[in-house]
Amino acid sequence: AQSVTQLGSHVSVSEGALVLLRCNYSSSVPPYLFWYVQYPNQGLQLLLKYTSAATLVKGINGFEAEFKKSETSFHLTKPSAHMSDAAEYFCAVRNYGGSQGNLIFGKGTKLSVKP
Amino acid sequence: EAGVAQSPRYKIIEKRQSVAFWCNPISGHATLYWYQQILGQGPKLLIQFQNNGVVDDSQLPKDRFSAERLKGVDSTLKIQPAKLEDSAVYLCASSFQGGNNEQFFGPGTRLTVL
């Protein structure tokens, strides 16, 4: 069975500072991993995905994530936070045990950006 | 291209009442998902359709929840009767063919059960 764990339900950074949101996965097969962002009162939007190609994945809005098999991690980073990055971020893994394409989500990390 | 549409956006009901949510996926998307997102948690899959057939409903509380996707396009999710613990955001998503195709999410319906 697959699962993801997001460390830290709330992260606060200053504008211009590094953003680091942590995600660890558990999977008995090579995982497909995703990061989604959710703005208030909106649905989820895909930021980036890892599908066993390059281990460093670049996404939208300047975000990137690195797949580290030895650490079972897929942390999301952005070099310089912007006020518009304030949102909730979800890490997800594709569920191989269930139906095709089904995603298993972490509990989410709410990012606050201080001016 | 229009996104995934959901209605209503908000719904408040009392326990034991019934409620229905509607989803219109992106045109041409064969796979449709309903997720439940309880406050403070990530979305959890309730049911997945491929065209008008159910692929996975293993986490759907079938004693009170039902869903259908007639003609393989629009879908409705119904709760009858609702319980307090059903208070959540119900998200609909669609993808071209499931698998590793990107899932596109609608804005969700926020349900409050009093």
Count of distinct strands of chain B:
11
Element pattern of chain A in H and E: EEEEEEEEEEE
What structural class do the secondary elements of chain A suggest?
mainly beta
Major sheet details of chain B: 7 strands, mixed
H and E string of chain B: EEEEEEEEEEE
Task: Tell me roughly what share of residues is in helical segments of chain B.
Answer: under 10%
How far apart the termini of chain A lie comes to 41 Å
What is the radius of gyration of chain A computed over CA atoms, rounded to a whole number of angstroms?
14 Å
* Mass-distribution shape of chain B: globular
Key descriptive features of the protein:
heterodimer; A: 115 residues; mainly beta; six-stranded mixed beta sheet; five-stranded antiparallel beta sheet; B: 114 residues; seven-stranded mixed beta sheet; four-stranded antiparallel beta sheet; globular
Describe this structure in words.
The complex is a heterodimer of chains A (115) and B (114). Chain A has no helices and eleven strands. In chain A, a hairpin with an 8-residue loop joins strand 9 (87-94) and strand 10. The radius of gyration of chain A is 14 Å and the shape is globular. Chain A is mostly beta strands and 115 residues long. In chain A, strands 2, 4, 5, 9, 10 and 11 form a six-stranded mixed beta sheet that branches. In chain A, strands 1-3-8-7-6 form a five-stranded antiparallel beta sheet, with no helix packed on it. With 114 residues, chain B is mainly β. Chain B has strands at residues 5-7, 10-13, 19-24, 31-37, 44-50, 53-56, 65-68, 75-79, 88-95, 104-105, 109-113. In chain B, strands 2, 4, 5, 6, 9, 10 and 11 form a seven-stranded mixed beta sheet that branches. Chain B has a four-stranded antiparallel beta sheet with strand order 1-3-8-7, with no helix packed on it. In chain B, a hairpin with an 8-residue loop joins strand 9 and strand 10. Chains A and B meet through strand 5, strand 9 and strand 10 of A and strand 5 and strand 9 of B.
